[in-house]
Design a protein that fits this description.
This protein has one helix at 31-37; strands spanning 4-8, 15-19, 25-28, 41-47, 51-53, 59-63, 68-73, 79-84, 89-93, 105-109. Strand 6 and strand 7 form a beta hairpin. By secondary structure, it is mainly beta. The N and C termini lie far apart (34 Å). The longest helix is centred in the N-terminal third of the chain and has 7 residues, at 31-37. The chain has one helix and ten strands; from the N terminus they run βββαβββββββ. It has a seven-stranded mixed β-sheet. A three-stranded antiparallel β-sheet has the order 1-2-5, with no helix packed on it. 5% of the residues lie in helices and 39% in strands. This is GFA family protein.
């Protein structure tokens, strides 16, 4: 039997499931992620084909740059997804998973752009940009 993880938004209008094990949690400290969430973005990458959303009508997509779009609940505003153009993976916000999630942090990206009001002190690898 295949592993499955579930989650959803704050109000419950959007529920999703993921077949298989999600990737590790990555913290993104870029200014766009901070503005969307109020802190940094903690997300896991999963194959787009492994993600099923129960009510796609409740998901709204915002084109946040020339390279990507961000998905959120149209009812409560919960940040849910990040999708890079042409990528076969979608990033899913780690905090939207039902517990126990079994997720664990791996590293931080865009640390050169992090907010001036906090420090990254968990000892995990930090990259100024997205690692190649």
């Amino acid at each position: 039997m295949s592993e499955e993880h579930t989650g959803g938004c704050l109000c419950g209008a959007v529920r999703f499931s993921i077949r298989g094990k999600p990737g590790p949690v990555v913290g993104c400290h870029c200014s766009q992620c901070r503005r969307q969430t109020g802190f940094y973005y903690a997300a896991v990458n999963v194959p787009r084909t492994a993600l099923s959303v129960e009510d796609e009508k409740a998901v709204r997509w915002y084109r946040s740059s020339e390279e990507a779009r961000r998905g959120f609940c149209s009812n409560c505003g919960s940040a849910l997804f990040w999708q890079g153009d042409g990528r076969s993976e979608v990033s899913v916000m780690a905090g939207t998973f039902d517990e126990p999630s079994g997720l664990a942090f791996s590293h931080h990206i865009y640390c050169a752009d992090k907010g001036d009001f906090y420090e990254i002190t968990d000892g995990l690898p930090q990259y100024d940009r997205y690692p190649v």
